[in-house]
Structure prediction request, 615 residues.
Amino acid sequence: MTMPTNSKNYFDSYPQITDIGDSALMVVLGERVSPLTNSVVHTMVRQIQDSGWPGIREVVPVYSSFVVHYDPLELSSMALTTFIENIHGAVDAKNISEERRIILPTFYGGDFGPDLYSVGELTGCSMEEIVKIHTETDYLVYALGFSPGFPYLGDLDSRLHCPRLDSPRVEVPAGSVAIAETQTGIYPVPSPGGWRLIGRTPVSLFNPLEDSPALLRPGDRLRFIPIESKEDYKEIENRCKTGEYVPEVIYL
Amino acid sequence: MITVIQPGTFTTVQDLRRVGFQSAGVPECGAVDKFSMRCSNLLVGNLESEPVLEITLFGPQITFANPAIVAVTGANLSPRLDGEPVENWTSFSVPAGGILSFGGPVTGARSYLSFAGGIRSSSVAEVMGSYSTYVPGGFGGLGGRPLKAGDELEIGETNVNEFRQREFSSHPQFSEDALLRVLLGPQNHLFTDDSIQLMSDSDYQVSVDSDRMGIRLEGAPLTHLNSPDVVSDGTAFGTIQVPGSGLPIILSADRGTTGGYPKIATVISADHSKLGQLLPGNTVRFSVVSRELALKALREQERMLDSLRDVPTVSSVVKVSGQIIDVVDETGQTVPLDGSGYRFNASVRHGEHVENVEIKIKD
Prediction:
């Protein structure tokens, strides 16, 4: 694996560390969305979280940046900036965090995927092709955001790129698998949403009462596998509720 | 125990914030006006992080089964005990059978009702380390929802005979015009220079579409240099993001953890309290300040709370045999050890050995 940090120009430009007000810092590691930059983000975030530095409240990774929330009465912006720069300088490929692959069964089409037809029209793909293309890639969980447990997944095969809905739905059902532009994602809880719904998973992605409320973690790989019938979907859904079914997790 | 007779417009259980789950997409939630919320707890002798009721606009009507000590801070929503007006920012005792009600908003938007001994209901459980209600997600507080008529909450037991009234005389005044001090960034470079000037020079009105997620403003639109979209990144309390319309939105407690609009500036911590008290139609003006000024204002605000808490004096903290050689504040500036200030880091020398200690000073 080649790290972006090997480039001299990269070190000249990044990290860009900026105040967000007086109690948070924005740390930008690149302008573009790339899996490599994203893995450096998650590696650094984990190191900062594990550092136990007093005054650091929370570290929040997104695509190519992260935010460090801190108590300015405990910790100065300058000291924290130096600390982050030092961690960045020492990042190397050996520190890249452990990766997991999670297998997520999904029923495509029908009333669970009401936009599968419009995606077909916009992309020129048949229903079977859409399902085949969507299930043949490992997606990277760049970050969780938008709503509790919602994974920003990339990168969607360019054959499936299509615009958001003209008018967002008022409520998207929990478990809906959706695509928009270059992205695909899953709505863990009911929420409004403008992405095109192509299927639904019976697996719960967010439970506020669990120690780890979100099933997915930033940096995970995710693979969808098709559920053949509504009966199979119902069976998995029931077994999820009783705890007999948990999605397969492979440590890479 | 207390029973809710009328729930009011929007009354929720909130503590300071939910920490550690933003990376799972969970907003931090918590009281919008944390200063008033903490003050409410301190007035009844609680830890300042105890959950309280956040009361918005028209307050609830609540009956108390047992004697209790309570305080109401923040907005003046005309609190009444058994029909008689009671003071904001002052603790008071409620007799068994007493009814607390609110006559309507006078100034500000949110009041904080604390109970000595806190809220002790099994129905109000910690979720992800916090009692704060997140209504869009349906979790936290009482069933993840605002209070409704008939709700019952256990509150801490307290000895009313030992009640000592406390008041907070130096409390903030909320008005219909708020001056919000901001630090520019993190993405002010994505706006035209004229827009930065325009933001400082303009009056903005608080829109009716404002809530615990954010305060939408109406007024002079700001102009992006290029596209109004950025790669989604993190947000903070008080961040001012500007979508394609050019109209600023100040992000608040229930904000999404990520956002894809450029962020022109961020309201300083010392002015977060004011954000919680803005009402639709209020006027907002922005003033760009330095980080040093923001920290000074925050320390001054913390010192105001010290009158309500028992802060160790400098002599009780620094019992070191060595000689204090250097005292610096958070910005790294050397400060005189003359008793002005709240918290310092000091370097203390014992012979060859230098030790760093924290000093807290009470006025």
